[in-house]
Amino acid sequence: MLTNKKIVLGVTGGIAAYKAIALTSKLSQAGALVQVILTKGAQQFVSPLSFQAISRQPVYLDTFDELDPKKIQHIDLADWADLFIVAPATANIIGKYANGIADDMLSTTLLATKAPVYIAPAMNVDMYQHPAVQNNLAVLEKRGVRLIDPNEGYLACGYTGKGRLAEPEEIVNYLEKSLTEGKLLEGKKLLITAGPTQEKIDPVRYLTNYSSGKMGFAIAEVAANMGADVTLVSGPVALPTPRGVKRIDVVTTEEMYQTVLNYYPNQDIVIKAAAVSDYRPAIQYQEKLKKQAEQMTIELKRNKDILLSLGQMKEHQYLVGFAAETRNVEQYGQDKLSKKNLDAIVINDVSKPGIGFGADNNEVLIIMKDGTEIKIDQTSKLSIASQLLTHIAKQIGVERS
Ligand code: CTP
Predict the structure, then answer these.
(1) Three-class SS string for the chain?
(2) Within 10 A of 361 (CB to CB), how many other CB atoms are there?
(3) Does ligand 1 have an atom closer than 6 angstroms to the CB of 260?
(4) 74, 253, 282, 398: which has the fewest C-beta neighbours closer than 10 Å?
(5) Known catalytic membership, residue 157
(6) Which residue, by CA, sits nearest to atom 17 of ligand 1?
(7) What is the mean pLDDT of residues 208-212?
(8) Is the pLDDT of residue 398 over 60?
């Protein structure tokens, strides 16, 4: 996977900078073309000559060392990269990158690149756990930066804990795995629905549910990273559109139904993560309803079941439903799988604390049509999305091993 990949490796000033020499060597041996940027701090620990000898490329040290008048060095390097990795990444570069600070060769090139960026932090355990650092890492992860977690162990500062730079072999394996993942859904059209739907009662009120859209948006983001052509049909949510995803906003179940059906014929994979409103008020008032007696009744009418319709008209599509349950979770999930003619169902127990609606984490049971069951313990919705899509890719036989 790394053959002929153009990699920019940024090395910052931590004791683990020496491991970046071995990393350069391993990447070169794997067939990658590596260009290295050393920060001033890194130059205190390692010599540019070591990297130059291994990469057989000039090493970049300063934004203003403009060696070739035809080029602007940091822009040229940013555009050249297929992949950008910072290893080791100190708290300083993480903070600068998260906040858009560009004051040296590495930070300017990082801001200028459109290539996927990987960050491998290394620092003292207390620094790593500091809320400022964790917050900056979370900001970067949200922007699509991949984090290669540090290992636990003995640290150069004498402490023991999490903060050791991942070993060069682990970093190379991580990059290879993520490049393979990047092709898993290449050429596939994937439609995903997310969020709640809203059904109008009168000009100031509506019926809805607690869905935040986070699970569906995570699937859209990961599917796009896996190379799929993603259409996201979203109910009203407060979430940014993931990079590379085509988003269509809808409000009601009927609008979602029409939009999804429109796109359905040429999709390869359809995932219905939306929490669709099963009912709408029978009358939608044009004027605000005034309060009246002690009790009031709103008559509701059934909405179409979008997923059921998709199951009935299914041709080549791989169809995945969600089931949010509060009891008899597995049984209800199984029933929906067969009743709606699905290829897989993702079941979550929304009564459990810390997962489900609005949370960043989830815990699910995936049941496939062939009976395969996959239990995913509590983890981030992004990780659930990645595992779910990897299983789907396997099932539709696009995985290239
Ligand atoms: N769904 C749908 N259209 C509806 C209701 C649900 O497409 N009108 C889809 C959801 O997007 C989800 C799946 O059906 O993928 C299951 O939704 P859920 O609300 O758990 O189940 P329901 O089918 O509505 O069944 P029940 O209300 O009886 O639990």
Answers:
(1) CCCCCEEEEEECCCCCHHHHHHHHHHHHHCCCEEEEEECHHHHHHCCHHHHHHHHCCCCECCCCCCCCCCCCHHHHHHHHCCEEEEEEECHHHHHHHHCCCCCCHHHHHHHHCCCCEEEEECCCHHHHHCHHHHHHHHHHHHCCCEECCCEEEECCCCCEEEEECCCHHHHHHHHHHHHHHCCCCCCCEEEEEECECCEEEECCEEECCCCCCHHHHHHHHHHHHCCCEEEEEECCCCCCCCCCCEEEECCCHHHHHHHHHHHHHHCCEEEECCECCCEEECCCCCCCCCCCCCCCCCCEEECCCHHHHHHHCCCCCEEEEEEEECCCHHHHHHHHHHHCCCCEEEEEECCCCCCCCCCCEEEEEEEECCCCEEEEEEEEHHHHHHHHHHHHHHHCCCCCC
(2) 16
(3) no
(4) 282
(5) yes
(6) 323
(7) 94
(8) no
CA-closest candidate to residue 234, choices 264, 256, 210 = 256
Q: Is the minimum distance from the CB of 272 to ligand 1 under 6 angstroms? A: yes
Q: Looking at the CA of residue 309, tell me the nearest atom of ligand 1.
A: 7
Q: Using pLDDT thresholds of 50, 70 and 90, give the confidence band for residue 382.
A: confident
Is residue 393 a contact partner of residue 321, using CB atoms and an 8 Å limit? no
For 165-195, the pLDDT digits (tens) are 999 999 999 999 888 888 899 999 999 999 9
Distance 274 CA to ligand 1 centre (A): 8
Classify the C-alpha dihedral 16-22-27-33 as positive or negative: positive
The whole-angstrom separation of Cα 198 and Cα 204 is 12
| Tens-digit pLDDT profile for residues 6-56 | 999 999 999 999 999 999 999 999 999 999 999 999 999 999 999 999 999
| Number of Cα atoms under 13 Å in the Cβ half of residue 62 | 4
Let me know: does 61 contact 48? Beta carbons within 8 Å. Answer: yes
